[in-house]
Fold this protein.
Amino acid sequence: MVDARITVNGKVTPISPAAPHTTVLDFLRDRGFTGSKEGCAEGECGACSIMVARPGVESPTDWIAINACLVPVASLDGQEIVTAEGLGELDGSGTPTELHPVQKEMAVRGGSQCGYCTPGFICSMASEYYRPTRCASAHAAEDTVTEAESHDHEHGPNGFDLHSLSGNLCRCTGYRPIRDAAYALGEPEADDKFALRREQDAPEPVATEYSQDGRTFRRPETLAEAVQLLRERPDAVLVAGSTDWGVEVNIRSRRADYAIAIDRLPELRGLTVESDHIEIGAAMPLTEIERRLDGSVPLLAQLFPQFASRLIRNNATFGGNLGTGSPIGDSPPALLALGASVVLASADGERTVELADYFTGYRQSVRRADELIKSVRIPLPLAPVTAFHKIAKRRFDDISSVAVAFALELEDGIVSRIRIGLGGVAATPIRARDTEAALIGKPWSTDTVEAAAAILQGEGTPMNDHRASSEYRAAMLGQSLKKLYAQTTEAVLS
């Protein structure tokens, strides 16, 4: 295997002598790229944002913004990244000579303010600037509606999606000029090098075996190789989006003697729709899943905007969210309501486990040490009525106090089937079995819902913590069912 290296702003740079756990952020700053900052080291502030070239959904390459503070630099072996320093025009020595359109708009509209977070905002904004369908959606809107109707409070008249900035927190609180800069952006020029780069293939995954100071980072080429490595090293840490492991490295100083990267395995990155199920690769980033499904699974379409932030979703995966076993992960309640299963792979083969049977205790599951999550399987047809309710202190980019997902089927006003997934109210994500039993076969009415809501309040064992009291969590469970009833009634009346 060749020496590990990464292309930074067009220049190939060796990763050595960085330790295998070194984050992209620390790697860059050690080499003089100090635009990326450490604000939180947890992927919440976006001050460290950079752009990476990845296989695209609508074009051969998409420019995707990620949190540099969470990702080990070894995981980007053979890949291509751009920092805020590399966006403008550079001379032969790498010195900027002309501002990028995003940088220019941020400057003239007062979006830079104190400047600490500005490079991160600029990389996230540039990623959205180069989204292939951004301008196309704006032109389509212009053809059908008036200018005043062509955008809402989260989308600009130029097609700019403010969700792309949901992971960038400005400490000066001056969001209006930042939004103004985003909405002022036009289309990239015909000779824009980053726009042209989208028409070329993204870098292929590189098989990596990178060792320093007795620790090893390994990227296998195939799933078969990965599970064999896992059999030989059951103590290995599996790294996909690294949105959870990166926090462990930064905040708790965790180190892995042996890490296996599975984020680029083709067997874990597929999305197929069969006659009786949808299969989603466990290592496909949530943003890519969202774009490929394009609203065809309404419950997931409700989940995605509330799952952390766009920066996190650009790297986070279903496999990682389920693999950590956290009781407050946002995807398990939705997947439980959808009746999903997980496909587990090992050197012995594959097995399928219903998600309702997957979790066994706090951050524990039936997955063996020599297994990895290959995919998530959602049965078809989907329930016609679904909802995802997340109760948190912030609307976006926050951990839920309670998360509730519903999948409901009605026949002539009678509940024929319902699945309710809960998060944040027990040691594991759970199905609200007692509430489901109380609803099935009953009329979908005020009396039925009131009685079932009282049962739902007693599901799980909610605790008191800094996010919410146990009484509040229980009350929110009951209210969520009443909210669902109100929403379905309003839909019928309208």
In short: The CA atoms of residues 87 and 193 lie 10 Å apart. Residues 470-493 form the longest helix (24 residues).
